[in-house]
Amino acid sequence: MTASHPSDSNPTESTLAARGGWTAAFTTQTSSPPVYMTTAFDIESLEQLDSVTSGREKGYIYTRDGNPNHEAFASDVARLEGAEAGVVTASGMGALTAVLMAMVQSGDHVLAARVLYGRTGQLLNHMVASFGLKVSYFDVADVASIGALVTPQTKLCIVESISNPLLEVADLPGIVAALGDIPLLVDSTFGTPCLIRPIEHGAKLVWHSVSKYLNGHGDVMAGVIVGPSSLVRKIRAMSSLYGVNANPFESWLASRGLRTLPLRMERVCATALKIARFLKSHPQVTNVFYPGLEDHPDHNLAKRLLPRGCGGMLSFDLAGGRSAVDSLFRALAHVIPFSPTLADARTTVSYPAGTSHKFMTAAERAEYGIGDGLVRLSIGLEDPGDLQRDLETGLAAIHG
Predict the structure, then answer these.
(1) At which of 231, 258, 285 does a domain end?
(2) The overall pTM is greater than 0.90
């Protein structure tokens, strides 16, 4: 970037102040990527404007449309996922919004797994009510049912690689085969490209809540979508049009977090399996949902699709229902806090019935297996023995 300097005409102090903040151009490379905290980029001429907008010259114009920090992060995720291109957005829900605006319109039909992050289902239901979208839900374990749901208007199918909050594993190759030419969008927030790369199994698009594992430090709100360049171009245009673009600093933070993703995922996978086995044997726990356990319904599928581990998320049911959950959370508050998010460096607990899936009716949650005693546990980077002792103490307090 060419540095900007005041002219030699002895400008006044107001001019010096307004045009300040620059240093002379230099040639040494920064050791860490810089943050491009700018709303816009200066254009030298109308010729350059035409050259940049046409793609003949590499450059940026307005940060809502593109920024080097956006591009750096989205490109890194695309490479990790084996995709051609990507776009970063203000949140995971912003990414889904941009995809839907780019791929469906009134009267179109979307297929979706019946157990999804609650806000995903809420957005789809909103589009049904307000925009005339048609949505059919299916049991992700029943791949054979998909064919009967497909219509000539079906334009998209949405699943999670590992579902929230019941940790179901989607048979991505089987779903792709059942869909034929219909594109599959996979929310792989729980899986990450370290554990599964949906595009390798035939998915068209992969979507992440960057706020979770990709960043991994609980201090970013962003989303990302990756896939073929031609489709990502349309999604990027909708991201700009609807104003769900990401912030440069958030993108920079996400890039910093991404550098340790493989190390973090290896650690949380190992710890989660240990904790899942501990919880399985605890008398206060009636069920544990973790595909790494041999008795999980998707264990064999997980061994095939998730050979590097089943992730750091698990859920478990408490026999005492909501009151037992409240006792547990109060006992854990200073060591394993109740936080309505996941994939921080620290371990946290959450309550799906009251947070991520509170938008469902009680009957819908019961139908999907999300009971009042369900706890979602996000494993962090602590010592596994310390976590087990904290959980033992918390569970003991339920009858205290």
Answers:
(1) 258
(2) yes
Mean pLDDT lowest for which of 21-25, 72-76, 98-102?
21-25
Q: b/e map of 181-212 (b: 16 or more CB within 10 Å)? A: ebbbbbbbbbbbbbbbbbbebbbbbbbbbbbb
339 C-beta neighbours (distance < 10 Å), count: 15
For residue 206, what is the DSSP state?
E
Q: Could you report the per-residue pLDDT of 255-267, keeping only the tens digit for each?
A: 999 999 999 999 9
The pairing of beta strand 109-113 with beta strand 134-138: parallel
Q: Are residues 237 and 274 in the same domain?
A: no
What are the distances in angstroms from CA 196 to CA 97, 136, 203, 303, 307?
Answer: 24, 26, 11, 11, 9
Q: How confident is the model at residue 1 (pLDDT cuts 50, 70, 90)?
A: very low
CATH number at residue 236: 3.40.640.10
Q: Using an 8 Å Cβ cutoff, are 113 and 163 in contact?
A: yes
Q: How far apart are the first and last CA of the chain?
A: 64
In the block, which residue shows the tokens 């300040």? 20
Q: What are phi and psi of 283, to 5 degrees?
A: -65, -25
Query: φ, ψ for residue 169 (rounded to 5)?
Result: -105, 125
Specify the pLDDT at position 319: 92
Indicate the angle between helix axes 248-258 and 68-81, nearest 10 degrees.
30
Say what the alpha-carbon torsion angle 343, 217, 261, 73 is, to the nearest 10 degrees.
Answer: 110
CA 139, 352, 112 angle in degrees (round to 5)? 25
